[in-house]
Design goal:
With 666 residues, the protein is mostly helical. It is 50% helix and 0% strand. It has helices at residues 20-25, 37-41, 59-90, 101-104, 141-155, 164-171, 181-192, 202-218, 227-242, 246-263, 285-309, 328-333, 342-345, 353-371, 378-396, 400-403, 411-438, 442-465, 476-495, 503-519, 524-539, 567-574, 642-649. α7 (181-192) packs antiparallel against α8 (202-218), α7 (181-192) runs parallel beside α9 and α14 packs antiparallel against α15. Pfam families: Fungal_trans (PF04082), Zn_clus (PF00172).
């Protein structure tokens, strides 16, 4: 045909290309100018195109589809070869290996149905999601969109690593640009956890995230893990800590720290390292900021692990060459903003809200490391003075919104002040115990007692100002702050057992207990710490003085055991000598020469434990593991005597809860 030949000079009165009408009807056009014969006969407008029509598809798309098809065929072949062997080994029907992450979100799922309020939100029969495999369906589009909205509205503030706009663009982008499935599923799990509508599926989403993460780790040499995988590990550690799966959380925390170092995110702003020498190159400031935030997320989970267990921190703050996170507005808008380094904060450098929470994690960690040491000489008091100076600097250089805040309208400011005052209490409580033990100057003791009393009163003021339903009560550091304040009043009552507490201090103590009782309905760490307050008071014979309920049949052996109470804090608050190796969850309680008791399960005839909000069925995390149903035990109902209900509900010991840390920054 003339139009298919190479370009030639057009003849006089003829167009080089056929008209649009003839091309559309696939008829031969005589190309007569200004209108061809066919268009003239039917009185149709004749339009000649200026250039040839483009192809209706791009070759790149065809190549991408061929690559995806080859990967899918490879997965199917592996399943056919190994299917019988897998069934014989596990004794159950094993699903095929998960599809590659590029293919996962492209599979249609017609069997999904939108949740119905009367059906328990089951997407498939029996309330179970089907096995992992190439045919694995994803939640309906509407459900995914709602889960993303829930996550960025309610969960994102606790660890603001993901850029909402970029993440959602990637989710809705081409398959090869989407986040790995482990990150997608853990985001959905975080959004589902505690949500009235989707909480039932949090366990299934979490298990799928774990399985996809394990699969990605085993691919190739394991050197293909990216920033998105790091974000997934950090969020998984946070989710596991919320579910009191502390051993798993600590393992994912260690993975995130190791991956941070291998990616070079601990030296993002090192002037001696050229950008070309880093493992990951960032194309924009937002991507660099995401690297910083991922590093500080790993720093936060590592700090919480050290705070809660007493284990050594895996990140050394003296070696950091990554700036603190910039402000949230700059991060969202992409406006370049230079944030300070960690040590510059103590010299008065302005910093963001997220950076403030990280500074608190850092100072809390080094304070508890200081108080857990057994030295009491000049080295102790030198560290004490340095830490007290750092705390004073933090109070002095807090962002303006935190210095004279309206706690009711700014819960983040309330959380920040709670944590700072709790750190102050831990620091000076250790100093008071050293003074009592070694008969140091009474003036030093009174000075520290004054600081403790002021901080406890400030914590009470914050509790009075905020709503009992505030999200900050879900933070472990908030629960820890309430426990520290209660411990101050227990010490003051122990120091003066005859007269007890003055009326105003007794009222403050009761206010703290009421707050812990109210929030303990939905937060197990708060329940554990409240129980620890009762045990501390009973240990020193202060239950009647402090008007506490009788704990009933709590034996002497049980007083030395309380799962999930922070080891470092208990050591700091009680200064108990330890003669046997530390065992997470089996913590010393008491003072003087009472030795740490190496308890075994057989000695705990009436051991106390916390009911778990979700039952995680253990088993192989292999690719074909069938996802189990999730059962939800009932919590004690609220009433006039929540304390007695709580004590009655803690009657069995679960080894899976016998370790200790939870992650949540805000």
């Amino acid at each position: 045909m003339p139009e298919s030949q190479g370009p030639t000079p057009p003849e006089m009165g003829l167009s080089r290309l056929s008209c649009v009408s003839c091309r559309a009807r696939k008829l031969k056009c005589d190309r007569t100018m200004p209108a061809c014969v066919r268009c003239s006969n039917v009185d149709n407008e004749c339009v000649y195109p200026e250039s040839r029509r483009k192809r209706i598809y791009k070759r790149a798309n065809v190549k991408e589809m061929e690559e995806q098809l080859a990967r899918l065929e490879q997965q199917l072949n592996l399943h056919i070869v190994n299917g019988e062997k897998s069934r014989g080994t596990t004794g159950t029907k094993t699903a095929p290996d998960p599809q590659p992450k590029e293919m996962s979100t492209t599979i249609d799922a017609p069997e999904y149905e939108l949740p119905d309020s009367g059906s328990g939100y089951h997407w498939v029969s029996d309330g179970q999601l089907i096995d992992l495999g190439v045919s694995e369906p994803l939640p309906p589009f509407e459900v995914v969109e709602e889960l993303h909205d829930i996550y960025f509205r309610n969960q994102h503030h606790s660890m603001p690593m993901l850029h909402p706009t970029l993440y959602l663009q990637a989710i809705h982008g081409p398959p090869n640009k989407r986040p790995p499935m482990c990150l997608q599923y853990i985001v959905w799990a975080m959004a589902s956890k505690g949500n009235e509508k989707y909480d039932f599926y949090a366990d299934a989403f979490y298990k799928r995230a774990r399985q996809y993460a394990n699969m990605d780790e085993m691919q190739g040499d394991g050197d293909h893990l990216t920033l998105r995988h790091l974000q997934a590990f950090i969020l998984m550690a946070g989710f596991e800590a919320k579910c009191m799966l502390f051993t798993r959380a600590s393992m994912n925390s260690a993975k995130s720290v190791s991956l941070v170092h291998s990616l070079g995110f601990d030296r993002v702003d090192d002037p001696d390292i050229s950008p070309a020498s880093t493992t990951v190159s960032a194309a924009s400031w937002i991507e660099i900021e995401q690297q910083r935030r991922a590093f500080w997320g790993a720093f936060a989970v590592d700090a919480h692990a050290s705070i809660s267990t007493g284990w050594a921190s895996l990140i050394y703050s003296n070696d950091l060459m990554t700036r603190l996170p910039a402000s949230e507005d700059a991060f969202l808008s992409g406006q370049i903003e230079d944030a300070p380094f960690l040590d510059e904060v103590f010299q008065g450098a302005s910093h963001s809200t997220f950076a403030t929470t990280l500074v608190i994690c850092h100072i809390f960690k080094i304070t508890l490391n200081h108080t857990s040491r057994h030295s009491h000489g000049a080295a102790f008091w030198k560290r004490h003075k340095d830490l007290d100076h750092k705390l004073s600097s933090i109070f002095m250089f807090l962002p303006e919104r935190f210095q004279s805040p309206d706690y009711k309208s700014d819960p983040v400011a309330a959380h920040t002040n709670l944590n700072l005052h709790a750190t102050t209490i831990c620091l000076h409580y250790a100093a008071v115990e050293i003074v009592d033990k070694h008969s140091h100057s009474e003036a030093t003791k009174q000075q520290s007692l004054s600081r403790m009393r002021i901080s406890a009163e400030e914590i009470v003021e914050v509790v009075k100002a905020i709503s009992p339903n505030s999200f900050i009560y879900k933070s472990v550091l908030c629960s820890l702050s309430l426990y520290c304040a209660a411990s101050v009043y227990i010490y003051l009552a122990r120091d003066n057992p005859v007269e007890g507490l003055p009326a105003n201090e007794l009222a403050n103590f009761e206010m703290i207990l009421r707050s812990m009782e109210t929030t303990g309905h939905d937060h197990k760490i708060t329940r554990a710490l409240l129980l620890q307050v009762y045990r501390d008071a009973e240990r020193y014979g202060l239950s009647s003085i402090l008007h506490l309920p009788d704990t009933g049949q709590v034996t002497e052996v049980e007083l030395g055991y309380c799962p999930s109470v922070f080891m470092s804090v208990k050591i700091a608050m009680i200064r108990q000598p330890i003669f046997s190796p530390l065992q997470v969850g089996r913590l010393p309680l008491g003072a003087g020469d009472l030795a740490f008791q190496d308890l075994t399960y057989n000695t705990l005839e009436n051991s106390l434990d916390l009911p778990d909000t979700s039952t995680y069925t253990e088993g192989s995390t292999s690719t074909g593991q069938h996802i189990q149903d999730v059962s939800m035990p009932l919590w004690p109902q609220s009433g006039n005597d929540f304390s007695s209900q709580m004590l009655e509900s803690m009657t069995s010991h679960d080894p899976t809860l016998n370790d200790g840390f939870e992650l949540e920054l805000l």
